[in-house]
């Protein structure tokens, strides 16, 4: 086990840790430590909400979650010798939930949430405007949920969020272009984007005026951007190697939002099985790598070679037509994937799951979301691959029709 | 080898076959034969352009292709007992290029094209407005191209286009909603969609007024729709089972646009390695299956279990920001995947490929296109997985930088 | 399709072909053609028995088969420039059954046989001394058998037998060491080895005294030896590359005994799904490769990357104890694997298969036979991995016990 | 993390633990705890030698190891309700090295040993009669060795040894049949088998006369037998489910000999990367399962679905001919696999590894050992699949010949 360079006491909020982390992107958040190229080290993490959600049977905590404090990150970690223009090479050696059981997410359990339309939303928020939750129990590499009987996943554990710090210029670009988007419909619910928000901001070890400036300017952590960030790539698991653009001296790497499992798209917004835990990393540098390899706008990565091996899938397709109005959208992969998801939900409902159970399942199970056709005007075609082996019953179509059963219900709001 | 129920002489156009096929979707195209549930049969196919492209080093044929005659399909094949509301179960037993070598695509060779912005376009048509071509030689299950030295793919052969006939009502919906989209910008180049087009229409064995009506009303074959159609799903290969909605008595199954290999998205529009050849099918029915399984808007399928096994990938990500203008689009997976593609092209250019070579490569190679994050406002995040084993040199990033070499050029226009 | 350099009329015996093949290994069998390094070419093959077995429901043909005429090989093919000490690089581009249906094995069907103890024997010949047969129907890449209901395999097609010609010295060594083994128990049934046998010998295009000498001296084709030969490696499928030692000028490559599918060990002796058909090859040379790479006693190969993808297995283990007498053998992997096979048969019998059906299934299905422990004195431990997905019922153990059903019977002798 | 039911202080020998384990198989060793069907629990383990080997550069510890104290097991664990004739279902939920770094194997490092011919031996002990060692450093799921530069494995972690207690009758059979084998050549070095040995015996919590009797009668742990035991199955990793025969009331499950990685056969005898650590298990029962499923002589198991994904292999074959004397052995898979191993070693020597380095590599790397042909008289054919991706250089054969380099040396004896 490598040395811990960022430690977390899961009984305390991130704000109250001996060395606190941060929940905004800003070049001026001080580094918590400096590692050298070639070094292996461990980082401990809180779950993305800083443990606002509980191991119970009510979704009230999802409905009422304070999203201003998300995502709680560990870091930033400085890398000796890293300069703008370099590529920071990060190997994910290991990661997992916490060793101890307890009441914080990751302590033997995790959760998946459907966020309410009024507080976070999600990919199918028009179809599912209310809050729901599923709690998962960990069994080594596998998880089960009392709220989703009949399924058992082997986790492709990964960090939902990992990235380097933006430069001041890049941060300014983010804020400008996202505000422009917000300005196209400022009252939209859910909003188009989140501007810098002082409420709930945590600036690591910065204090005083520095902390206030970081809170006022710091980019929200929710989207993926040029620095990586909240990419939610389900295959960024153990054994993966990532090449991050470096925008500031020292690179300033941060990580958090660990997932026990997730489907492509993380469609319920909080679709992964969320947890706190640890991640072991190794870092190195490719000097001047951004120009050398043409990696200028987003990280490049190589997934690891250890993943659950599935060989049979049910694949649902969707095209870019709004089904409710029969309106054709031009090459719109988002609409196409939404339809593929809705088709998968309809299929699972035929077997007795509720729609919200099916939606939670598709967020957290190791499904693949593929852009199958993106050139055949006017319809993009996306496909969703659902592995059949995660079910403890035979979920394949037969001439006899589906076996309908009472499959319970997930946690709902009071 | 099962009985041939639709045979093709590759020396003749589809129009001149003893029993011609069709290139429009319409419920009234007469069936060429009727098969029973449980039957296995072979269908022979022309390539999608009806052999307008040649095994040479000029892309003039791509530039000048007549798209009104595409996609040339074999069928429709009636299935005994199939009624609207059923699911037609189609197993792909085998498929491949023609047995004989010759001058038609599929006769020992195939092609990939970048279509010109003015005649077809493609996913990156703004970046690549001109026509290009790569010709591939088949070596059993693998293909190489003199226009793309350094790569060799094992083909995941599949039909780009397979589907059932629409009902008259469904056809009318297609025509209405696509015309509505066209009407939003009628002069756009490339167009938003293609309306029914009498020029070039082929209505199978229909004649006289019937043929004229089919030409006037028949939906173009280019997009994927409720009936399957041009889904361009690269994994719909040997061993796959598809469950098609049935909209008309007899189901009326048609198939064509065979691909030797394709990447997710088929991004150059004619991105697959295109070929004529044969496909062996087995059919069955799930009576009333659409309602039983909730499969009402698109086919469901189960991919086969025989695919090239790759274990190492370079993964490029992109987010939904227009890079040229730094404009943020909201949860736009199409833009995100476009950026992932551009990032992959930039990477390959760093090794000496031209941009158009890289673009052709990404269309035809067995890349995976994933919707990784679709909920983290405002940025969708898509990823493109490029298998490293298709290259005959080590294409992974190293501290030493890429090995730049003269990697030739694809076919260009005169 | 590459040029055919060895053609076979499946309506005629190998002996009656325009250019006959051979069924003995000898350096003096004349080449049928000479190919150059870099060339691709097709070879057509009879099944290994030269079509002595039939598509019927009796195993009399297995019981009465004339083994003196086996294995019928196509070739030898000379390779320009190949000299002793080189490595001959052979790529398997494609292979499969014949295109036409008919009465010869490979013409739409194949067979698996349990050979009688008195005529061929097999791995479990003491337990199964009589002849049995299963006939398989091909459905594209898959096969089913009326004699083995409930299973369906995707074929890992491969040549059971492929090799280069021995030098005169090497041939003499083979004959000497195998005769020495026979001499330890000359009357054994089945015999320890087969000496050169004039009866049934076919020496290709050799005639007169040459043919007589070849028949008198030529090594039987049944075992694997330094030249490759009857290795029966189930993964030597499409996409594989083999590096053969070259022992004579021109290498003299021969091939035959095509298999639609086989399990590791081919345990019933004729355990594969046997067929005639075609194989497409590409050849090249590594000059002086035997010394360069230390490949002096057996071929080296690299399996292809296209195989059925299975993810769940039942694994049976066995140790090197004779179960019938409770006698311990020292590190005897053969005994250990025999026990693993018997354990698998007992398991399948619990579900309703007859022992001979189970034995036929394990010979032909894509099982893996592993040497798990070979150092833990005194017991070797071998394991047999049976993929569960080849069954159309759930074959996994449950607390409820196996579902016993009438699963028919294979072909038996009259 | 489940409750620990058997804990180990890695600073103390197994003999000095608060609750000691055992190193002999005997029905009368008292259970350390009783678990119920459905329970999940953690067991901590010493490495198999009880930490006799060290993280240094000398193989003297291997040469001088006391094998009378091996294999140190944790347990036995009683299972409520288990009766003879049942199948004990054991799920491996997780396993790994210890969390802390330190001087005991498993504390951040492990080792592979070639045992001396005079003290343990191994599969190629005639070729490698002296002791050697390689020490491995763990990096999350991967390991590297200063003694084997150029390779890096992802561990398929597994218990080398896990099994249920024999009944008194079964134990008597073991002792009888193994003594009979020893008696065929009592002075053989290495011996054919190991009889019960009082020296070094540890009988768990048994004391006095009980302990003496157990030491005098208890079977040595080295071989695999009907109860499972030292099967050394490299794929018995996380996610595996094992069905053990139950021979005594309570089943009495014991486990130890954890491996970070191992190749099929574990050919150097101590061929795995050996470590202490933990294993998390879940147990259940199939009442009367031995008769129901015909699982009477050895455990049945289902491997997990999470393993390193390799797609390219070098495959070495061997046949059952003694190469040194050119003597033919009849269907001898052990000899065939030995030749395959020697062929692989010769190949690696051509690249600059020493023979002993190559031998250590083949013991510990995730190679596959296959019984390819076991019926083609007189030669068994075995194959060894070596994944190419574990090397950091291109190890495939080319026309240019191997790249010879100084690849260091493993630890040798003084």
Give structural notes.
4 copies of one chain form a homotetramer. With 414 residues, chain A is of the alpha+beta class. Chain A has a 6-stranded mixed β-sheet, with no helix packed on it. The first copy, chain A, has a 6-stranded mixed β-sheet with strand order 3-5-16-11-14-13, with no helix packed on it. The longest helix of chain A is centred in the last third of the chain and has 17 residues, at 333-349. Helix content of chain A is 15%, strand content 30%. In chain A, a hairpin with a 2-residue loop joins strand 13 (224-225) and strand 14. Chains C and D meet through helix 2, strand 13, strand 18, helix 4 and strand 19 of C and helix 2, strand 11, strand 16, helix 4 and strand 17 of D. Chains A, B, C, D: GO terms for molecular function: formamidase activity. Chains A, B, C, D: Keywords: Hydrolase.
């Amino acid at each position: 086990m490598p040395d811990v360079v960022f430690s977390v006491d899961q009984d305390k909020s991130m704000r109250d840790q001996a060395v606190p982390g941060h929940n905004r992107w800003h070049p001026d958040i001080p580094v918590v430590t400096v590692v050298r190229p070639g070094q292996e080290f461990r980082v401990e993490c809180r779950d993305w909400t800083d443990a606002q959600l509980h191991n119970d049977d009510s979704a009230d905590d999802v409905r009422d979650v304070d999203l201003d404090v998300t995502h709680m990150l560990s870091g930033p970690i400085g890398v000796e010798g890293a300069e703008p223009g370099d590529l920071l090479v990060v190997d994910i050696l290991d990661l997992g939930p916490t060793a101890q059981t307890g009441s914080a997410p990751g302590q033997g359990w995790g959760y998946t949430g459907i966020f309410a339309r009024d507080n976070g939303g999600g990919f199918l928020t028009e179809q599912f405007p209310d809050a729901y939750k599923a709690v998962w129990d960990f069994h080594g590499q596998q998880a089960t949920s009392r709220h989703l009987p009949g399924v058992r996943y082997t986790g492709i554990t990964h960090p939902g969020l990992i990235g380097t710090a933006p430069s001041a210029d890049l941060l300014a670009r983010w804020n400008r272009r996202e505000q422009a988007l917000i300005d196209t419909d400022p009252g939209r619910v859910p909003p188009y984007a989140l501007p810098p928000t002082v409420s709930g901001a945590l600036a690591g070890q910065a204090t005083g005026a520095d902390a206030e400036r970081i809170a006022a300017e710091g980019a929200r952590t929710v989207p993926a951007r040029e620095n990586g960030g909240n990419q939610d790539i389900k295959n960024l698991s153990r054994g993966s190697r990532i090449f991050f653009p470096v925008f500031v001296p020292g690179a300033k790497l941060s990580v958090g939002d660990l997932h026990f499992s997730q489907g492509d798209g993380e469609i319920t917004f909080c679709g992964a099985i969320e947890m706190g835990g640890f991640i072991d990393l190794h870092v190195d540098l490719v000097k001047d790598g951004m120009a050398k390899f043409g990696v200028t706008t987003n990280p490049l990565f190589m997934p690891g070679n250890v993943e659950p091996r599935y060989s049979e899938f049910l694949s649902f397709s969707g095209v870019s037509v709004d089904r409710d109005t029969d309106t054709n959208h031009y090459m719109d992969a988002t609409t196409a994937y939404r339809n593929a998801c809705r088709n998968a939900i309809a299929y699972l409902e035929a077997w007795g799951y509720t729609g919200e159970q099916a939606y939670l399942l598709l967020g957290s199970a190791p499904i693949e979301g593929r852009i199958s056709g993106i050139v055949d005007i006017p319809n993009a075609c996306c496909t969703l691959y659902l592995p059949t082996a995660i079910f403890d019953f035979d979920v394949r179509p037969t001439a006899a029709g589906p076996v309908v059963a009472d499959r319970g219900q997930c946690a709902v709001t009071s």
